[in-house]
Amino acid sequence: MADESPLVELRGIRKSFGAVTSLAGVELTLGRGEVLGLVGDNGAGKSTLMKVLAGAIQHDSGEILVDGESVRFASPAAARRKGIGIVYQDLALCDTLDVASNLFLGREPRRGPFIDRAAMHAEAGRILRDLHVRVPSTRQEIGRLSGGQRQTVAIARAVSTQPDVLILDEPTAALAVAEVEQVLRLIADVATRGVGVILITHRLQDLFRVCHRITVMYEGRSVDNALVSQLDTNSLVDMITRANATDADKEAASDH
Ligand SMILES: Nc1ncnc2c1ncn2[C@@H]1O[C@H](COP(=O)(O)OP(=O)(O)O)[C@@H](O)[C@H]1O
Ligand SMILES: [Mg+2]
């Protein structure tokens, strides 16, 4: 039954760009209310995989199941309609617009032909309060906010579309310590509401703070998967580096 299916299941996802194989067969599952850490070296294929799930890139082969139903997204809008939300690493915020305008970009509340600014700011305030996101004012230009505030506004924008799945690509990579805390709290809060979150990160502290499970990628493949509760720092580092070491060993062996 649909309730017993994972929220998301990726089976054997492959994608090449010309001669470059970015994804060489990836398996991944995500449950409701679960925070899945997606880890692996630069170039492992994490961002490409998430763009496939979010409809920004079309895969060559393999299957995407959402709620047990096989889907293929022709566009980001099609993925959004199926409840997939994503925050890209570059955030895609508009620096010269204020907080409320960024939250509602392209779907501003209207009164006749005009944007209803009063309603937009009131609703923006409500969304941010609900998510415990603190900014000086919804009328503040985004370009004047700190990195952490910009990141939380970008996440709030994705969350306000009420996705079932929220993908975050390295949301804490460029943040100061206090800002990281705000983003991690927001992630935990969103998951508590039943949203499945996929968190791409290089920060081991973040994995231990908010993730229930991690999937490790290496050179376009998913190579390992484990519950965070069964890992400590050493075993996690081992897991992430094992794939690389195994590969290096193979190369060393074949040199002889
Ligand atoms: N549009 C593209 N065209 C060609 N190669 C790409 C494209 N997007 C990603 N790649 C390649 O795919 C591989 C995986 O990249 P990426 O998914 O960004 O890895 P990660 O996010 O794990 O660092 C890299 O070798 C990258 O250069
Ligand atoms: Mg990436």
UniProtKB/TrEMBL annotation:
Q: Which PANTHER family match?
A: CARBOHYDRATE TRANSPORT ATP-BINDING PROTEIN MG119-RELATED (PTHR43790), SUGAR ABC TRANSPORTER ATP-BINDING PROTEIN (PTHR43790:SF8)
Q: Which organism is it from?
A: Halostreptopolyspora alba
Single GO MF annotation:
ATP binding
What is the top-level taxon of the source organism? Bacteria
Sorted alphabetically, which InterPro entries does this protein's record hold?
AAA+_ATPase (IPR003593), ABC_carbohydrate_import_ATPase (IPR050107), ABC_transporter-like_ATP-bd (IPR003439), P-loop_NTPase (IPR027417)
Q: What is this protein called?
A: Sugar ABC transporter ATP-binding protein
The answer to whether the entry has keyword Metal-binding is no
Keywords of the record, alphabetical order, are: ATP-binding, Nucleotide-binding
The ABC transporter domain covers 8-244
Q: Does the keyword Secreted apply?
A: no
Matching SMART domains: AAA
